[in-house]
Write a structure and sequence with these properties.
heterodimer, A: mainly alpha, 26 helices, B: alpha+beta, two-stranded antiparallel sheet
């Protein structure tokens, strides 16, 4: 198969979901079954094509990169700057072809699952339309070869996320969550936009390859590496928003207002991983300082997520915080330079986290049905305190959930173990090169916490007795359309898909396909830096593995002691933790803090602006109008009284004089002669005196 | 490029078709509302058709700006000529029309919005004859401004547009219409007076020698004014970087800034919009605001390149303030229409920022933003009009849950709102992108600050969407009908343009790229251009 065919396939993969979206948005309601089979079928085809591309690419062209592009906008030779043109195009390298499979696979299975889960929904066809829009946008991010398209699709996934979180927009909480997700993401995107502006102004192009090549030969923004660092961090801002990293992580838990399969697809497996993918794409231009920032942001996020997840009772919230934590892990891994490990964790996490969400969806679905049967609308079907004992009733869901939980906890023979172990080895290697030992210490702590809270969730949901025995008999296993995706995800959460050696992935196909790209940053000495890091990781590997198994085991053990065997009372633990518990339970008060500062501040500023506009600026306008009116009234008065007064006075005066003079106009000639003579005498005397 | 129909140039047709329509309307009996409406729609529809012909025939490679030979569809006739006046020589005012890459998109926009406005005027109930004849006069005035190349003619069209607007707001407007109309009129008129002063100063400064008679001729020809060699030594605007030239630039700038409207000259806009009937709001936001920025580019930039370059930075600052301040004010509004009005101020700020960048990307972004803002804001005001027609209410808290009740309407709303907040794939994104990219090249810090505007815009747009369209439907709105066919006729072309230019903006960019690049060159070589990081 030639590269042209692969490109063609990739274009089909990209545009078929868009076609599905258009079909369903316009004709969805008129189609049989509201068109769910079209949407699902299309995703099935894209999955098939993606798999073909993956195999052909990895087997026949493992080291090549295929690019196909066209000029979208051509400014020509711009005065004072030089030629500027904007190319759009797609790029197939190992990173993107693996990601293609991840996205289409999760999307396809979520489509299948949704057929069961969303059955009877008021906007059933709209839901599938939006899933198609999302798949299109997400695939665009994956196969783009330039920053602009990345940004375009970046915002488009934001749109589809907005639409899907707000699917049940009649609920205020849902529309609030949708709005919050979009706006918080916009903050990150604004930073990313500035980063892209720095890049574009420097290189007059958006294309990755051209930019990397220019940097490699020493062209950097405004001639200073500080600007390159800034550009890197600003682009990373996009990832902070989309991948829910500290300090913009607060939108993700709220996004759980969307339908659960959406949470699995968008808010666990694919879209939120786009940030990680972005870092991987731009890894080669990240300076040492930028990577350090990325490492610590990831680390902080991993801890925050894990700490909050421990105390939550909403099954989806626990998973949401666990997603935040795991995304932090990936970001941190890329920051430390464990490039392959970070991306590997993205891939493994996609299947077990999607599985966890779909599993929770299966549980919520069953709970909902049971509650519905009893006309109980008070009990929260998502609260794990209302569950328990579901193991017997929902065996498939339980078993698959168990596998996912083992995977996310990093237990051997799962995919999660492979990737997590590599990340931990990476942090150890990073620490031994740079001296930042806090990073591995906290990373191991997070691993332990993860194992603990995930087993807490598993035990409270499935073990023990059901919270309300009268409800128990109404709970049933979900239909096949929902359980089969779970089984597939569970299979994909085992080790052998990624490496035949269950204790190390470095000999598997994945590590052969994905290599850490060489840095093009001038100050990073390549390939020495990469070699030093590689050695350090190699040395740390056994230690990392032993420690990670130990710590995961401890976490699991503790969870069983507290929640399964109940040897330690959970309430006593809670009281012992005191304010720390409240702190965690209330999500470290991030929302309250942001509401008071950012939201409140903006609203205050906005009201101040309105006041300023109405009172001061318009006040000046109306004031000057008033002054003009007053002045014109005054001049009118002046005109009436003084000017017109003078006129009238002179008229009056003339009349008065006339009245007097009239007396002299007698009409008698004799009188006039007397006047004449009298006047002559007067004049005579006047002129004589002169 | 020349094109004439019945011996009359196409630009004259485009400009005066509405006046023809007006004459017909005036001849019709006032009871025959349908004929009046149909005439208006036909006149503006033909205007739109001709503008499409212009679009097809327009040569994308010709530069225009200050070169009379590369203007297209030129028509030039001697209009007023007074021979041998003592001291000043011959006085000459020409009927001089022509377009280049800067104006062609505005011509299309004006024709399009005039037509859409005519369609949405269908449900004007009172004094139809007066309304539609004034409306057509307005359409002529607007179009004339964008094709006139003689300053005097430009000024005449500018004033012709003003008068009908005053009556359209003052008679057919809302409860506070008289206040709004007077405010609009006085504000704009102040701008006109400032423009008039500069126009006369330019007139007395610019002369050329008629090659046939050897006579010295004063002229209002804008292109003549762009050549420094035509300025008579010793006259008020002669020279480079003189105080008088700076003063003249500032007067012109204020005149145009009122129209844009740029902070702090903007407060007439919210009042005018709130009071104006829907189609007039559409015209106002869709076309009238662009005259300000167009005037700057057509007149201030090439005639005063020295002063333009000198004042770029303050201009950019005002643009940034408008972007952020407009967005903040919009967020605080409780009235749907006022919110959209303030969003206009914010979006026009982007135009000014892009223009101030004085590079091709920025300028192309700015002019494209003028066009896109025209189409998007027209949609937004039509959207407001739809609920106002049905309920008579405009408060943002009066609604909720309309998405279920009016799905077609909500689809249109989604496109318009997301275009307004700059979502990629819709036209607003492209123009904002290039405006910001251009600005970043010239004023790095200002560009970074202004990017915060896109977050604020997203916030108030989505908040509005939530308050009006999401949530639970109010009891009294359960019978609201969805869009009618007539309303769809107004919405669909705009929506198609918004989507098309978002996906494939090249046709619009190619129209103006050459001219605007050349304008950048003209202005930058005429002054001391500096980059301010």
């Amino acid at each position: 198969m030639t590269s042209d065919t692969l490109i063609q396939f990739a274009l089909y993969i990209l545009f078929l979901p868009l076609l599905g979206f258009l079909l369903l948005i316009f004709f969805g309601k008129r189609l049989p079954r509201q068109g769910d089979w079209i949407a699902t079928g299309i995703l099935g085809v894209t999955l098939l094509l993606s798999l073909i591309i993956l195999f052909v690419k990895l087997l026949s062209y493992p080291a090549e990169t295929f690019i196909s592009q066209f000029t979208w906008i051509d400014f020509g030779d711009v005065p004072f700057i030089g030629p500027i043109s904007v190319e759009l195009g797609i790029m197939l390298d190992n990173l993107s072809v693996i990601m293609l499979v991840v996205v289409t696979l999760v999307s396809f299975l979520v489509h299948v699952f949704s057929i069961g889960y969303m059955q009877g929904d008021v906007r059933y066809s709209r839901y599938f339309a939006y899933l198609g829009l999302f798949s299109f946008s997400m695939l665009g991010i994956v196969i783009t070869h330039n920053f602009l398209m990345m940004y375009i699709f970046w915002e488009l996934v934001g749109l589809s996320s907005y639409l899907l979180i707000g699917h049940w927009y009649e609920k205020k909480t849902a529309s609030d969550a949708a709005k919050k997700a979009f706006i918080v993401n916009r903050i990150g995107d604004a930073g990313m936009f500035v980063g892209i502006m720095i890049i574009f102004v420097t290189f007059s192009t958006f294309t990755f390859e051209k930019i990397f090549d220019s940097i490699a030969v020493g062209t950097i923004p405004f001639g200073s590496e500080a600007w390159l660092t800034a550009a890197g961090i600003l682009i990373f801002c996009g990832a902070i928003g989309k991948s829910a990293q500290f300090p913009l992580h607060t939108w993700l838990p709220d996004a759980m207002e969307g339908p659960t399969p959406v949470s699995a697809l968008i808010h666990a497996a694919t879209m939120v991983a786009a940030g990680v993918y972005l870092i991987a794409r731009t890894f080669t231009i990240m300076t040492g300082d930028a990577l350090m920032v990325i490492t610590y942001i990831g680390l902080i996020t991993a801890i925050i997520g894990a700490v909050i997840a421990i105390t939550q009772f909403d099954i989806k919230k626990v998973l949401a915080y666990s997603t935040i934590s795991q995304l932090g892990y990936m970001v941190m891994a890329l920051g430390t330079g464990a490039f392959t490990a970070g991306f590997f964790h993205l891939v493994t996490h996609a299947s077990f986290k999607a599985g966890l969400f779909l599993g929770s969806g299966s549980v919520i679905h069953a709970m909902h049905e049971a509650l519905h049967k009893k006309h109980d609308h008070q009990t929260d079907p998502q609260d794990i305190r209302n569950m328990g004992g579901l193991k017997k009733k929902m065996p498939v869901t339980y078993l698959t959930f168990l596998i996912f939980t083992l995977a996310i906890s990093g237990v051997p023979f799962t995919s999660g173990f492979l990737s997590k172990d590599e990340i931990l080895a990476g942090t150890l290697g990073f620490a031994s090169v740079t001296g930042h030992y806090l990073v591995p210490v906290l990373a191991f702590l997070v691993a332990g916490l993860t194992a603990f809270y995930m087993f807490r969730l598993l035990i409270l949901t499935f073990h023990g007795d059901h919270a309300d025995s009268s409800r128990e008999n109404d709970i049933h296993e979900s239909p096949g359309v929902m359980t089969i995706p779970l089984i597939i995800f569970a299979a994909l959460s085992l080790w052998f898909f990624y490496s035949f050696n269950p204790f190390g992935a470095s000999s598997g196909w994945f590590y052969a396909a994905i290599e850490r790209p060489m840095s093009v940053v001038p100050s990073v000495v390549q390939p020495v830096a990469a070699e030093v890091f590689k050695d350090a990781v190699h040395h740390a590997h056994t230690l990392a593995m032993v420690l990670s198994i130990l710590i995961a085991g401890l976490g699991i053990l503790f969870a069983f002691v507290v929640y399964h065997f109940r040897r330690v009372d959970a309430d006593r633990l809670k009281n012992a933790a005191g304010p720390l518990y409240d702190f965690s339970y209330n999500k470290l008060y991030f929302d309250e803090m942001y509401d008071r500062s950012v939201v409140g501040g903006t609203m205050g500023l906005s009201n101040l602006s309105k006041w300023f506009d109405d009172t001061i600026i318009d006040g000046i306008v109306n004031g000057s109008a008033a002054i003009t009116r007053w002045w014109s009234a005054f001049t009118g008065r002046f005109d009436n009284v003084v000017i017109d007064g003078l006129v009238n006075f002179s008229a009056y005066f003339t009349g008065f004089i006339g009245l007097i003079l009239r007396k002299f106009q007698t009409g008698k000639v004799q009188t006039y002669i007397v006047f004449v003579i009298f006047s002559i005498i007067v004049f005579f005397f006047i002129f004589r005196t002169l | 490029m020349e094109l004439s129909i019945l011996g009359i140039g196409i630009l004259t047709w485009v400009v005066f078709l509405p006046v023809l329509g007006m004459i017909v309307v005036l001849l019709l009996p006032k009871e025959n509302g349908l004929a009046i409406r149909a005439t208006t729609a036909a006149a503006t529809g033909l205007q739109l058709l001709l503008s499409i012909v212009i679009f097809m025939r327009f040569d994308r490679a010709l530069l225009g700006i200050n070169d009379p030979d590369s203007f297209q569809f030129v028509e030039m006739y001697r209009w007023i000529s007074v021979d041998a006046v003592p001291w000043v020589g011959r006085i000459e005012i020409n009927y001089f029309l022509g377009i280049d890459g800067l104006s062609v998109l505005m011509v299309i926009l004006t024709a399009l919005i005039s037509f859409i406005g005519a369609i949405s005027s269908w449900n004007i109930k009172r004094l139809e004859k007066g309304y539609f004849s004034l409306y057509l006069l307005l359409a002529t005035g607007m179009m004339g401004v964008f094709v006139a190349l003689d300053f005097f003619l430009f000024f005449v069209f500018w004033e012709v547009m003003l008068l009908p607007m005053y009556f359209l707001i003052g008679i057919w407007g809302g409860p506070r219409r008289e206040y709004a109309a007077i405010k609009f009129f006085i504000y704009t008129f102040v701008g006109s007076v400032l423009m008039l002063i500069v126009m006369l100063a330019l007139y007395f400064s610019v002369t050329y020698v008629d090659p046939t008679t050897g006579e010295k001729v004063h002229t209002f020809n804008i292109l003549m004014m762009m050549d420094p060699a035509n300025f008579e030594p010793g006259t008020v605007l002669y020279g480079v970087d003189t105080t008088w030239r700076y003063a003249a630039w500032i007067l012109l700038f204020i005149g145009f800034a009122i129209k844009i409207p740029l902070f702090p000259f903007h407060t007439w806009l919210p009042d005018a919009h709130v009071e104006a009937p829907t189609p007039i709001s559409v015209i106002l936001a869709g076309v009238l605001l662009k005259m300000g920025t167009y005037g700057l580019l057509r007149i201030s930039y090439p005639i005063f390149p020295d002063a333009t370059v000198h004042y770029l930075y303050p201009m950019a600052i005002l643009g940034v303030i408008s972007i952020i301040y407009g967005a903040l004010c919009a967020m605080a509004q409780k009235d749907f229409k006022k919110l959209i009005a303030y969003s206009s101020i914010s979006h026009m700020g982007i135009v000014v920022l892009g223009m101030a960048a004085l590079n091709t990307q920025g300028m192309v972004g700015a002019v494209l933003q003028m066009f896109n803002h025209g189409t998007i804001t027209a949609m937004l005001f039509l959207i407001v009009g739809v609920v106002y027609d049905r309920t008579g209410k405009l408060g943002l808290y009066d609604f909720g849950g309309l998405a279920n009740q009016m799905p077609k309407y909500t689809g249109v709303v989604m496109i318009a709102f997301f275009a307004a907040l700059g979502l990629p794939g819709l036209s607003g994104f492209i123009s904002e992108l290039f405006s910001f990219l251009g600005a970043f090249d010239t004023f790095r810090t200002l560009a970074i600050i202004s990017v915060s505007g896109i977050v604020l815009t997203a916030a108030y747009m989505l908040w509005t969407l939530q308050r009006v369209f999401l949530g639970a439907l109010k009891e009294e709105h359960k019978t609201l009908p969805d869009l009618t066919t007539r309303e769809l006729i107004a919405f669909v072309p705009l929506a198609i343009i918004v989507i098309f230019l978002g996906v494939y903006p090249a046709p619009a960019i190619d129209l103006m790229n050459a001219s605007l690049s050349y304008l950048v060159e003209v202005v930058r070589t005429g002054g001391e251009f500096v980059i301010i990081p």
